[in-house]
Amino acid sequence: MHDALAPATPTRLYEQLIERLRAYVGTEGLAVGDRLPPERELAARLEVSRASVKQALLILEVQGAIATRHGGGSYLLREGATGPETVAELIERRNHLPQALEARHALEAKCAQLAAVRRTETDLAAMEHALAAMAANLDDAARVDEATRAFHDAANRAAHNEVLLALMEQIASFVGEMRHESLRQPGRPTKSLAEHHALLAAIRARDPKAAVAAVDAHMATIAQIRLLDWTPPDGTAPDPFLLPYTR
User: Fold this and answer.
1) Average pLDDT rounded to a whole number, residues 179-188
2) How would you class 33 by CB atoms within 10 Å of its CB: exposed for 0-12, middle for 13-18, buried for 19 or more?
């Protein structure tokens, strides 16, 4: 039962700085692609250490709100600087994504193996249509996300195994989260498109081993997301069984 008079949790400095940076983006009218002031300037204006500013900027980067370029500053990736996601929620996502990725990898590898044997011309056409849509919209995050989902749906259906499809449906929300997280990494849509073409080529050639290898390569890329490479500011370590995904 929730205790309305439970002790208040003190707001951490980095949380205060994130709120201040969000407000700054709004009042200054910054748009996607605009650069934030340098760390030194932010620290001086906020009257905090550069280490504190760096910590806040790192969380914004993990949230996908900004991109930090070595020696080039931080740039806004999303309107409004960041969403309502808290650090605790980021930690929870960091901890469950590796297991979800393991499950997805196992299921999609089997689907690809079977698709290379069972695919029809209709299946190939559906995959080709999705990749054409992705290629035509590489600068539109929403359309790339939708085209990527459509491609994987078509590839999985090409296995012609209803049980596997039902299992994929069970983890659909996790897959969507992974897809969104992966595709917002800088340069990722172009790389993802090439990896999808490799999978399509293997399925078209009826080569099960090549199809599984293509899935392996794609999952390795998906695992390279900023969130899984992040250590929270309080040093919270994930459960040993939830360490960043490797295979």
Assistant:
1) 85
2) exposed
